[in-house]
Task: inverse folding
């Protein structure tokens, strides 16, 4: 990879589906990741969203996350390592109060929920730190004959064809969606994201962060209604639609 940051731009705001699990933390994630991109782009400040909240978060991250902090984060090998990184701590300082405020009954933010949220945001931090080629589109037309609009998730990117094969092989994709342990899932996901970036594929960080939080909600068991509500099922449907289209 070069030091150039590529961006597939879009004027469309995030869709409700793309921010279902991020909620009020969407602007925080976008500003935090923009700060990482600025550092990777040799400290050149990038133009952000025309939004007061986004600008305030971005200014906070510019004063709390240094180039060395970003480098240390990228070198992490385990989620426990991420917890000690200033780049994560800065993100969590903004996320946790927002989560508490968005909880209708503050007492519902129990230790169990808090622990799961903390782990989920460790995962978001680790995986998003791998992304330097960004796709701002939230819906993308299928390349096949159907031209249907697909959510611009990691599964859509992974299922894209390179000649007659998907970018991520079915075996590797199935290994990811079969993961039952958070550390295993996040480790596999981080490696997949890194591979797609090396292949020059742009990734939507809002969808990626939202889907990580979705997986942790499924893992906790607080999200299950029907099988189709599970992230792994949704990813499978999208991946094989791309693979067979």
Result:
């Amino acid at each position: 990879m070069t030091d150039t940051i590529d961006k597939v731009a879009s004027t469309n705001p995030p869709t409700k589906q793309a921010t279902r699990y991020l909620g009020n933390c969407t602007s925080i994630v976008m500003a935090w990741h923009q700060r990482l991109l600025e550092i990777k782009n040799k400290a050149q400040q990038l133009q952000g969203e025309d939004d007061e909240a986004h600008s305030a978060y971005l200014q906070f991250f510019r004063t709390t996350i240094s180039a060395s902090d970003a480098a240390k984060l990228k070198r992490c090998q385990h989620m426990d390592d991420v917890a000690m990184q200033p780049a994560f701590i800065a993100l969590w300082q903004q996320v946790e109060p927002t989560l508490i405020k968005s909880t209708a009954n503050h007492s519902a933010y129990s230790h169990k929920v808090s622990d799961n949220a903390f782990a989920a945001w460790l995962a978001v931090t680790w995986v998003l730190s791998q992304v330097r080629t960004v796709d701002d589109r939230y819906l993308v037309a299928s390349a096949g004959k159907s031209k249907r609009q697909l959510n611009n998730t990691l599964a859509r990117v992974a299922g894209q064809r390179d000649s007659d094969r998907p970018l991520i092989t079915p075996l590797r994709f199935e290994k990811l969606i079969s993961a039952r342990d958070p550390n295993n899932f996040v480790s596999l996901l981080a490696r997949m994201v890194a591979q797609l970036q090396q292949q020059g594929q742009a990734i939507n960080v809002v969808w990626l962060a939202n889907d990580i939080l979705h997986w942790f909600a499924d893992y906790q068991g607080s999200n299950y209604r029907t099988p189709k509500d599970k992230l792994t099922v949704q990813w499978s449907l999208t991946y094989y639609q791309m693979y067979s289209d």
Remarks:
- The first helix runs from residue 26 to 40.
- The chain has eleven helices and six strands.
